[in-house]
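Reopening this one. Same input as before:
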Amino acid sequence: QTWNAGTGSRPATHRLMAHDGIVALQIAMALSMLISAALLVQSVSSLRSVDPGFRSDNLLLASLDPAAGGYDSNRIDGFWRATLEQVSRVPGVQSVSLAKTVPLAPGRQRQPWVHAATGEKIEIDTNVVGPSYFQTLGIPVLRGREFDQDDGRTSRLVVIVNERLAAMFWPQQD
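Same output, byte for byte:
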């Protein structure tokens, strides 16, 4: 390497090589970002074709907190009943329901369970839902019945389980 004694700099060819290297690096980074973006678009497109297990079209989700609006625990049940009644009267509404957690949302509630026969410990996703929940989401209830207006805090406890849990805890039983 020779240095230009007058300027103390490298010859122009070294500067060009460094410049070319930076340009090549920028092109490589841009290409990798372009490929990543294309893969993301393809993944999102593929997700749209997956059946989520519930009807996702023509749904309106609303998050309400009656306690934040000044309702105490004695008035909250009345708030939900009145809200469902008013929303069900809106023209075009076919079904309304309540749920503590909506499908595919973060913040699932997990409950520990122990299989009585095997002692296996598992965690089960749970949700608190209202009457017509499964009808509203287009989820068929294969056995038994959906929750109704008579199911509440003071009534006999009722639970709906999926096929996998039923097969695990009550194999070959109805």
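So the earlier flakiness isn't reproducible anymore. For the record, Residues 10 and 131 are 79 Å apart (CA to CA).
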